[in-house]
User: What shape does this take?
Amino acid sequence: MEKTIKAIRFLGMDMINQADSGHPGIVLGAAPVVCSLFQYHMNAYAKDPSWFNRDRFFLSAGHGSALLYATLHLAGYDIPMDELKKFRQLGSMTPGHPEFRHAPGVEATTGPLGQGIGMAVGSAIAETYLRNTFSTKDLPVVDHYTYVLCGDGDLQEGVAMESLSLAGHLGLKKLIVLFDSNDIQLDGPTKNSISEDIKMKMESVGFEYILVKDANDVLDVSIAIEKAKQSEKPAFLEIKSVIGFGSLKQGTSATHGSPLGFEETLRMKKELGYSTVPFEVDQEVYDKFQSRFGARGDRQYNAWNFYMDTYQKTYPDKYKQLMSIINETIDVDFDALLPEVPLGTKEATRSSIGKYLPKLSEQILSMIGGSADLTASTKVKGINGNFSEQTPLGRNINFGVREHAMAAIINGMTLHHLKAFSGGFFIFSDYMKPSIRLAALMQIPSIFIFTHDSVCVGEDGPTHEPVEQLSMFRTLPGINTFRPANGNEVRHAIRYALESNRTPSIIALTRQNTVVLNSCSYDEFKQGAYVVKSPKKEEGILIATGSELELAISASEELEKLGHPVRVVSMPCMELFLTLPKEKQEEILPSRLQNRLAIEMGSSGLWYRFASKAKGIDTFGASAKEQDILEYFGFTMKDIVKEYLG
Assistant: This one.
């Protein structure tokens, strides 16, 4: 085992030295922990890294990526030595922080501290729900652990403590946190910024706390992990390590984020009797990994395939449902399930989503989610009761006032192939932005539903009235931001989000009622924009989203009376519209119609890409009744007519 630990440590050092960039401290300090986990406990299969029933390992301390890549390489994952040599180089499988889809065995994109913990909690929720939905005593088709390695910095992030608080409350007993506790962070000793009792803290939120006094004692680490696996609670292992172990600067922050250099690495190798040739690994190390991690994975993988064959024969319907989740497919007749909303219907779009989610969830077993203590307002709620330790089949998650954790947890459940959705006020998307950005970076179809999408929140005032949030998400690469105008557009938005396999979705909805004044097909909607009204001899265009579509239609009618016929275009998703071929964009927004007014109660800047004028809000909101707000900011029919003609 010592030889294997040295191989992990020095492969990591060689990678960092060659790149002249990286974080050696965690590689040297935590190598025995990761080695012990993979050698004696992790059930995974390097030949099929996406095997559904594998144990998940999240490296929340993503700056330790060299530690992860070295371990996965030795464990037999398809990460060639040449890729280790290209650590942190353009186009390599081994970027500076782990990135999902870049290398096999990397479960999630991590690096922003605390995010890996949140996603691990989501993974553990998904495993609990799916295990109780599908597994039987004799056929454990879903039955695995979720491990996460974190450091002091992770635990200082609010998202981590939000997530761990919820995990303890939910009793996620197959979640195991490995805390690389070295009392050092980038700016020096942790005592400079924190003095809490981590044992009392973790026990108070519902974790089993286990102390390992020396990370280099592999047997003690392994015993602690085994004890954690037997616990009836989620487990938190504080493993005391020495950052930069073995180096002349060990135990100091100097080893955290700067290469130790070739000379120091050579000295360490000689002192420990290790090969001085960079990237050289004894065949015995590979053999040991194969005889332990590899052989165990072979057995577990083959046993699972046997279970699945038997399961298919014994429970054919449930097998089909499970396979749809594994393959990330859904089979729903959306048009039949969510029929077109009649013209004249008056309803807030938040109420529309509140009707659609239960209907869809009844047909799609993978749908699970909830709101951040706002269900009564957002209408975003899962079915079958509340998810808890006692009721693991409940699909409503009471996230509490934990928006940041909610978003990270949604990502973790989505990574586990669930159609996970969250609910909150749009203004609080500010708390969720880091996790939403990671969803886009990972190309996973997380669903983030927001309500109270404009200054029409009213009396609650500017602290609760989103202005810049739509623009914020529209400028985020790799995400679709939907602002549906009415119930018909809402049903298409949630359909698109559920059918997506690679793109997360933002769905922003109204608190106030909107009137359904038009119908639209799904094919029209998924263009991102479509023509609502196109009179003869039209001279210009009104472009609108959300509740402002109703305003645009009424303004167009007044303009027509005044001898100014205009086209009305609904643009529920800028991003989808911009993916259309240029000729299709021209068909919807013809260049011959240059007098264009975009109408939206939010930041106006992005609209000048499509319009010559934009009626938006580029200040903060105000506290007043809804009608007073609309008049104050100029979102009445008369104001729009005047703006167009001006």
User: Anything to note?
Assistant: The two ends are 78 Å apart (CA to CA). Residues 2-299 form a domain with the Rossmann fold fold (CATH 3.40.50.970). Residues 283-314 form the longest helix (32 residues). The chain has three domains: 2-299, 334-515, 528-645.
